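Predict structure. Input: Ribosome-recycling factor, 186 residues.
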Amino acid sequence: MTIADVKTNLQARMDQSIVAFKNNLAKIRTGRANPALLDTVQVDYYGSMVPISQVANVSLIDSRTIGVQPWEKSMAAKVEKAIRDSHLGLNPASMGDLIRVPMPAMSEERRKELTKLARTEGESAKIVVRNVRRDANEAVKKLVKDKLASEDDQKRAEADIQKITDRHIAEVDQLVVAKEADIMAV
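Output follows.
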């Protein structure tokens, strides 16, 4: 393994952590409807629990309503019940073979709770990025100890690793600020 390999691995792992963070942020509710909100809802499909996206088409009808269209008519009642029983506090309504899921307006208190949740997710993502940085620095130190790199190479590599880390942490901060603005928008 070389210092270039360590940097490549570092970049890939940090990018993965940012993608995971974006997925976690998408699950936090904002004032607008988002099909990703229903990703965690599980439906009983002939005896096994599957995500709602595997038994129905989930789409946006308008900015405050999600449309769920089960592929089998017999699944409509089960899908509606699964959404109603989920921890999301949604109240779906059937209209023929389409299930409309209106997003209730959020109170100011609830919006503040969700911004705190977004900040917490951001801090968790930063911790992951810093742990990846620590692992990369340790790998570089091991290369120096094994005489595969010089101490000058180590200093340059640590500086590069810090730049990559700072860039990813700044991206996490930007995503948190954007999500907070999204949540607080009425």
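Residues 69 and 97 are 6 Å apart (CA to CA).
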